[in-house]
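note to self: the first set is below, dont mix up w the second
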Amino acid sequence: MSRRQYSRLCYLIHDSQHLFTTAKSTELITKEQEKSLLIILSQVLNQIKVWIGEFDSDSGSGSGSGSGSDSDNGDHGNPSIDVSSNGEFVIRNSICHSSTSQCIFKITNDLVFLLAVESSYARHLAGNVLVAISEFVVASESYWEEFLQSLFFFFEVIICKAVSPSFDPPKITNHLDCDSSSFKLDLQSLSSNARWYSVGSIVLVLRNILKQQKHEEDDDENLEVFLNALGSCLRNIPWDFIDNVDEVSVSFCGYLVQLFCSVVSRISSSEAMADSVGENAAIQEIFNIFPKILAWCLGKPGECRNHTGISRYVRHKILVLMIRLSSLIHLHCNMITSWLHLIDKYFQDPLLESVTQPQADQDDCLQDSPFLPSLDDVEHDNGSHRHLKRRVVFLYLKCAFRLIGLKERPEKQCLCGDVKSCSKKGFAAVYEWLEMQLPDDIFVNSELYNDRCKRFTKCFLQLYMHEDDMLFEVLLQLTNMPFGCEQRIAEEWTSEVVEKNVLLLLSDIFDPVHLFHLFLSELHYDHEVLLDYLISKDTGASCAEYLLKCLRIVCDTWNSFRGFPVRKGGNRSSFKRRKVMNDSCVQQESSSESSSDEIRLSSKTGCKNQERRFHAATDCLLLLKKSVENLHQKNLFPYNPEVLLRRLTRFQELCQNPDY
């Protein structure tokens, strides 16, 4: 049955596009030819969807797939396809003498050839037909590997010729069971018409095929076959020969990075592949390739390359890719160090841009888009978009904090064996970034020190308040660091890894108790917002983890939570209370630097403000406890919150204890 199903598909594709696939060149087609091709491709696409529906129908009725008049036809003459008056295809003589693997190869060959046509509409529709055929193959429950092998084979053919015309086409894999001599003419025609836009088109097809896969057990098996074929293909491509790129080849890079992002995202959603993801060939190749893409699109050090909208897009997507990879893979120390160098080299402008500088419309997501302005927008060429900055800073600090954390987990991640050296690199990275962010006199023990530390911390937190997917990961990283509370600053850190003044500065900037107070302040002390975070599918787990850690720290350092005590000189009361959620750090900075009298509030006023913030925070958390209890009693809370309720109960006991 499968052979007959694939033979009729083979004849449908071959005969409907015979005039186009036998042409020597696809670069120029007339308007009439383009119109005819689009009509034919649309008809082919509709017919394939009908056949996919037949698979579903046969599966539901329990009858064999492919049964019907076509399957019963015993005529072994020359096959032909006619178009009826209503535009439907009539299939005749559907028994193919070739093997099914050869049928699949012919199908893929004809459609990939059309990806080289100049018409973007025709390429788009031919790609849709290939995606529909992938659905056909999955529905038939057979020949999935053969289909992918043929598709990736042609991907290699096209990209090798696009890179260098002197490359010989790759050999046909044994899985295809095809005689390469019978396809020699087609491969020559395909190679001679290979262009970067055709490479980009086939990459887009591969991405759309991947996105068609559902999150089911059978689809995990199909995903594994896809990843194996992708890894083998990427390994065979001569990436080192790609050097000079133009706007068209940069577009291909954009499609390729999109594919990589989809691969990583799909793997992260598959529990079956989580344990072996580090050994996956496709992931290993992605690690090797994306730094080269950065060099192609953004230029090597010392080069002055015009950053077009496409290159900015590629830079943004690679940043997204690195963030996803960092969450999927436990990066070892050498990899983390190389990533820090990549960020410093290709993302230096948003990395060093001041966190506290004026930002307009920071709550408007559309204004944060890097592709909204014109290509001549100098401000965007300088990397001043908040969305890019927050991701660059997030990834940079994440890598640095992982190096710092190696001292506590050396057996898992430190391959070089020099844990102290790796931790020092992490501290140095964070410290150097802070030196560029803070005023020069911040390190002087002055009355302005505490105010500037608090102002920076507030602006840093505001950078992520509207990015829920990163907000709690940033807060959790800072909470897990070996600095933040005085009792956590172990002597071994200051004597073996980093100077004491560096650790104290980081402790003042990223103190978890102060961050927790600021976090609640940014929420207007609204317990319902916290509850929304807790029950959200996207942020529930990370928010619960952050609250548990903060409640433990708060209960262990109750005096710090009550009064914001500081280590160095200066008036802690200079911290200003948040007025509205849309307040920017700019007004706070300008008002606090206008004069010393404006910076330093009276001690009496400062104590009142501290007390007011403390009561607002306790009211928020106690109302949260009551809401969680009510939902839990009604079995409406999405998970078991008993651990969180125990921490909140402990917090409530401290609030009611007269000794405190």
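second set (the one i keep forgetting abt)
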Amino acid sequence: MNKQSGIHYLREHREAGSSRPVPAEVTRIRDTVVAGLGDLLQGAFDAVDDSLFELANNARSNNEQNRYFEAMREIRIKRKGVERHFQNAVAQNFANPPRSGSVFSDDSQATQPSADSLSLVGNDDLEEQVALNAMITKAKAHFQGPLHQLQTRFSVVYPEASEELPVNPMAPEHLCSAFTEAIQALEIQIRERLILLKQFDRYVVSNLGMLLDEANRILIQAGVIPNFRYHGKAGQQHKDAKDKAGKQTSSESAVSEPSQDSIQAGDSAVFDQIRQMLALQRANAGIPPRTSDPNIHVIGGAELIGLLSALPQQLAASHSDNLSAGEPVTVDLRQVVEQLLARNAAEDGKKPALNELDEDLINLVSMLFEFILDDYNLSAPIQVLISRLQIPILKVVIKDKSFFSKATHPARRLLNSLARAGIGWSDSDEKTRDKLYDKIHSIVQHILNEFDGDVSLFEKLSDEFDQYLARENRKASLVEQRTRESERGRIKSQKAQETVDRVLREKVARYHLPDSIHNILVNGWSRVMFLAYLRDDVEHRWLESVRVVDDLIWCLHPHLEDDERDQWVRVVPGLIKSLRAGLEEVSYNSSKLDEMMGELKHELTEAFRANAQAEAFEDMPDAYSGEPEQTPPTAIERQQELEEAAVAEYVAQIDNIEIGNWVEFNLVNGASFRCKLSAIIEEADCFVFVNRMGLKVIEKSRIELAHEMRRGRMTVLEQGALIDRALDAVVGNLRNRAG
């Protein structure tokens, strides 16, 4: 059955995927994920093409070669259709999310095999099923944290989901199911199908991390359980997260249509708490309520909005076309509004004054910007630009008070996006050659020039900026992916070379070996060991390559016992064969190889004959005898011990840094730069950091990072939503004043 090969089926598939409305934040995730998976899948198909060509090149017969070329042709012809089918199936998963937990979402696909069902499955199907299950299991283990966070958040967004029946359209089992469904159109045999699955695992499933992180970021930005973090124990945390989600869902449903002057009930607790503390301050200062003074004309609501509409947008910048000039400037909003009221005094002679609610809002906006413009986590260029938005944000807040209570408020969402996008800037000099900075600059200028009180402008700019960021993030993610792969390969190669050198050094140093044998091991066989180390996780050849070294050294010793000499006769032919085969595999110089093997045979023959010259290959004498002499530690060693003891507490903080976290390094010369943790290569104890474009900027070990943190030369930057952090800081400051 080739149900997906026709246009009719693709149209049906697309219509099925759009048969129900999808939440806005899920639509953004769907578009990002579908595009990202499409890019990754192209890499997988390119690798499949290379693999099949290599196999055809090395085929043992014409029939085998034709089989691989036919498979290449089949895949090339139907590749675009498979890619479209896969992307459509993934998109449909977002519209109608399958239940998480099963390996396949389709009844027509095999489920996890059991002992009772294995006999009913064909050999080819069983091989494919085992490969898929291994792929899914590995992905779930590797991305356990992001997957759990995403499932919890998706289960909040989709109303039909529950804790017992969670959903996650991006679960590995659903993506694998979509791919196996898409490749049903390919008329290829099981071996080629397994190659296709292997490359899908390598290029798509193994790189899901960046898409999972982006999906979590979008949902956090939308206010869906922003503070939920996974640390490996799913039970209680999942329950706590679901409790938070339940509260958030109920609050959002209760305020789906808020009035202009009302605060959302679910999240208004923070704003109410702030108002209570401000009211307490007024009472302590002896300020009576405004409504009780007949000589005061209280201004608020539509009247205040009318006055604010005449307020110039940009009081902080002298030139509208040079927003980035100078330092961040804090505007005294209270003074600006008082001057505005004084210029518009009532004819009845009453003193104009704000009502208490609007006064609290203005004070709160002032405190928020005090925090924002003093926030170390914001890069300096972004602080300068955001400081220009104080008057527009004041107008927004007076007109739409849900800014403080609604995490998805357009203006609040835009500010959070601007701050998050600019976290990677290290120096303001970058702004002269950075397209992203130009984009942010144009957004701020657009608001200053065109905002007339209509909050929809913020929504329009926020959506445009999110789309722009999604495109830029896809590009940066692909570069970062290549950077990670390159660094993993480089570090693994470096470790392989270090391991080979150490093993040979230890083994060769213990014996007096002829120069020719030393040359064979160090300049020839070391290459074989290097390649074996790199392939060891697949072919398990490392120990075999080391055993050849041990056998060679053993055979070079004179053996006087009959059983040892019999063993020598059995070992040597296989040893010579293994040495030649290994050196030929690494393309060792053929002319030198024959000469080298001749010298080897000569040395082995001489060793066999030297029955009476065992002393020629005796082990070197021990470097010392008896107990080693205890020497007191030097001053440098004592200082190193103190350093290691002091840095121990910082190692735990380094281990808490997660992939994707931004940090700032301060150099000795006073300069600084920001970068993102892209990869932790455990086998080499190496932390790799990249810039905003995904390019590597630095790598350090765990201990080196701990030393940097201890000396104050490395700071982990906070990446939570800017306004959320600002509100938390404001509440803390007011509590301190009240306390």
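remember for set 2: The chain has a mean pLDDT of 76.
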